[in-house]
Amino acid sequence: MTDRAMTDRATTDRSDAPHILVVEARFYEDIADELVTGASAELERQGASFERVSVPGGFEIPAAIQMGVRSMEFYAARRRFDGYVALGCVIRGETSHYEHICRESARKLQDLACQYALALGYGILTCDTKEQAWERARVDGRNKGGEAARACLRMIEIKRQFHLYPR
């Protein structure tokens, strides 16, 4: 799969179907591809439409999501995102870099979700080894990409329950 700025996937014509921004960190491309496969299959199964944006690594995911949120302020013709799915992988190395990336990206995503009442599915794997990451990413394994998509869709339902949904 090539790194692309954004790909639009309209899987439904229903205006009440959720429209999701999937942000994928491409640092471990093979794992990212598997996470996206799981997430997109779940979103399509649930009738949601989605757009994808690729970022270099896990650290950049929160900024891309905030850009998606803020894009509504500048371009009203764009369809509003009802939810967000963060996908990526951070594998422990020999330095403390791992802890910084994991802590800061998770904290900022939680801050964004709470500040803006975002429906957010968290699918950033934080593992000691690539083998652990594969077990969590594989669609026929733990399928954390699909799990993150389901979490996002459930949070959209909760937003509707509290009448925080713009439709």
Question: Over the alpha carbons, how many angstroms does the gyration radius reach?
Answer: 15 Å
Proportion of residues in extended strands = 15-25%
Could you give the order of strands across the largest sheet? 1-3-2-4-5
CATH architecture: 3-Layer(aba) Sandwich
Give the helix/strand class: alpha/beta
Largest sheet: 5 strands, mixed
Protein described:
By secondary structure, the protein is an alpha/beta fold. The chain has one domain (7-161): Lumazine/riboflavin synthase (Rossmann fold, 3-Layer(aba) Sandwich), CATH 3.40.50.960. It contains five helices and five strands; from the N terminus they run ββαβαβαβαα. The chain has helices at 29-45, 61-74, 97-116, 130-137, 144-161, and strands at residues 7-9, 19-25, 49-55, 83-91, 120-127. Strands 1-3-2-4-5 form a five-stranded mixed beta sheet, sandwiched between helices. Helix 1 (29-45) crosses helix 5 and helix 2 packs parallel to helix 3 (97-116).
